[in-house]
Amino acid sequence: MASDAEFPALEKDDIQSPILRRRPAPYIGCHVLLHFADAVQGREFVRRLIPHIVSAADYASVDTWAAVTFTHSGLQALGVPRTSLDSFPLAFREGMAARAASFEECEDSLPAHWEEPYGTGRIHATLTLLSVSGPQFQEKLTYARRELHDLPGVQVLKREDFAQVQGGRTPFGYKDGISFPTIRGNDPSPIVSAEEPIAAGEFVLGYPGDCGRSIEMPQPDVLGRNGTFVGFRKLH
Q1: Could you give the CA distance from residue 72 to residue 213 in angstroms, rounded to a whole number?
Q2: Model's pTM, two decimal places?
Q3: Residues 177-185: contacts with CB within 8 Å, 24+ apart?
C-alpha cells in the first residue's frame, strides 16, 4: 500500500470547495441554471464570478460558498475552441439526455418527461450558492442578481432551492453527509467507520487514481486539471 508521501499534494487553492469539502450543517442554498445567449457577456460573467468562487483551501474562512459548473454546450457557447471541446470524454460531450436510456429504467423517467430546461441542451452553466443561514444566503443572492443586471445575454433559466431538513436527514431518509469519502491528501472524512482513503485521481483530474491509473484530461490542461465531472439530476 502506498503512503500519502508517494502521491502529489492536492492543489486545494485551485480546487472548488464542493469537490473536497462536505456541506456545513445546517445549510441553505440554490442552484441557478444559466444560458449564455452572448459569448462576450458570458465570458464577462465568468470573469466577475472567479473572485467569488471558494476553493477547498479557503473553505473554513467564509460563511457562504459559491461554485460553478459548465456543460459541454456551455463551453461551446463561451467560445472554447473545437479542438479543446473534442478532447472531453464522450459521455460529457453527449450529455445526460442523449445517454438517458443507459441509466433510466422506466418510460416516465425518459427525457420526454423531464421538466424544462433539463434535457433541452440550453443549460450552459450552474451557479451554486450555499450558506449557513438564510440572511447570509439572501445577501449573496442579491449580489449575484446585481452582477447579472447589465448582462442580458446571461439568462437565468431556472432556480432550484435546497436546504437541510430538520433532523439532518435527506429526502430519502438517511443522515445527510455521511457518504462523503476519504480522499487521499484531503482532510479525513468524519464518517462513522474508518475506511481506506481513495486516490485523489478517482475524483480530481490531474492526479493518479487507484492502481496508478490516470484519467485523460481535456486539453489544454487548464481546462481539466483540479476539476471534476458532475452529474446533475432532479428527482421527483
Answers
A1: 25
A2: 0.90
A3: 177/22, 177/23, 177/25, 180/22, 183/10, 183/20, 184/4, 184/7, 185/4, 185/7, 185/8, 185/9, 185/10
Q: Which residues pair with 70 in a beta bridge?
A: 125
Structure-block grid coordinates of residue 232? 446533475
Closest by Cα among 102, 126, 172 to 32: 126
Inter-residue contact 34 to 123 (CB < 8 Å): yes
Q: How far apart are CA 14 and CA 207, in angstroms?
A: 13
What are the grid coordinates assigned to 152, written together? 442580458
Residues whose CB falls within 8 Å of the CB of residue 45, separated by 6 or more in sequence, listed in order: 34, 36, 147, 148, 151, 154
Instruction: Count Cβ atoms below 10 Å from residue 176 Cβ, excluding itself.
Output: 18
d(CA 20, CA 12): 8
pLDDT in tens, 24-81: 888 899 999 999 999 999 999 999 999 999 999 988 878 888 999 999 999 999 999 9
